[in-house]
Design brief:
two-stranded antiparallel sheet; Rossmann fold
Length: about 300
């Protein structure tokens, strides 16, 4: 636990900054449930897979390669490794086909995978790479599987407090390829705002007891820092944890809480942090922007063929 975590209290949910994934899922029996977790081979994704399996769930473990997903699986756990490179539509569609072939009804999806703060602009299919990987790739994966989602199924999108660093207009719908301008953190913030808005619009479209929410995991030393310079990586890795950074078990708590805790079942289209409801920037509650982003993403998907 960091010094900051020691000083922070718990919120209305009874959990807070220093709660762990095991703590927030204590007593949950997930036997018979099947969950998809993306980015399952390291960090928060690996911990989420471990804890869901600990509670009895079967996990369809998605990573860039099947080998990576298999290597990270907890020993003896009911894990099905599936290759899914979110920046490659053919890979995502193959993953969807594989999941449908398995035939398991889905209790939910934890969309954990992502890339962060690429130093130079890169693009996939005309879209800035962070936005494509973090948002479009997950859209390509989740939307075709909604008919497999249980009547009380949950979708958890990994957003971030970094959504506050997005462009002043929120989402640059007229420049998703970052042709006009690029800065690593604004582009990353835009992708995290897109995750939040996707959850919001998806929740609006869902029926019955299905839910979709977006979470900020906290600031954690994970391999997302691989694109940062050496000085920042050193400070992040060695100075951050004792002061402010969450551990991986603490970082995975909010997405696990959103996925399986009974109190999260009534939340729809919300932004969550430290296992409690949090307040996003105004763009994060802009329903018109959420709908426009959904429509724009559908256009991108249609263009991909």
């Amino acid at each position: 636990m960091s010094l900051y975590g020691m000083l922070r209290g718990k919120g209305p949910s009874g959990f807070g900054y220093a709660s762990t994934a095991e703590e927030v899922t204590a007593g949950r029996d997930l036997a018979g449930q099947t969950w998809i977790v993306t980015g399952s081979n390291s960090g928060l994704g690996e911990e989420t897979v471990r804890v869901l399996c600990l509670r009895g769930a079967r996990v369809l473990s998605l990573a860039r390669t099947e080998e990576k997903a298999r290597a990270a699986a907890p020993p003896g756990a009911d894990v099905v490794p599936v290759a899914c490179e979110l920046s490659e539509p053919a890979s995502v569609r193959a993953a969807v086909a594989r999941i449908r072939e398995l035939g398991h009804p889905l209790s939910g999806v934890v969309a954990n995978a992502g890339i962060m703060a690429l130093p130079e602009v890169q693009r996939a299919h005309g879209v800035e790479l962070q936005l494509f990987t973090n948002h479009v790739g997950h859209f390509l994966l989740i939307v075709p599987l909604l008919d497999r989602l249980a009547s009380d199924g949950r979708v958890v999108m990994l957003s971030s407090a970094a959504h506050t660093s997005t462009w002043p207009e929120g989402i640059r719908l007229d420049d998703l390829g970052a042709e006009r301008e690029y800065t690593p953190w604004r582009a990353y913030g835009q992708s995290k705002l897109a995750n939040l808005l996707f959850a919001r619009e998806l929740a609006r479209r869902m029926e019955g007891g299905q839910t979709a929410n977006a979470v900020h995991p906290g600031v954690i030393a994970t391999n997302l820092t691989r694109h940062m310079n050496a000085v920042v990586r050193f400070a992040w890795t060695y100075l951050g944890p004792p002061l402010v950074l969450k551990s991986v078990p603490e970082g995975a708590a909010t997405q696990c809480w959103a996925a399986v805790h009974p109190d999260a079942g009534s939340l729809r289209g919300r932004y969550l942090a430290d296992c409690n409801v949090a307040k996003p920037i105004p763009a994060g509650e802009d329903d018109a922007l959420a709908a426009a982003l959904w429509e724009k993403t559908e256009e991108i998907v249609a263009r991909l063929g």
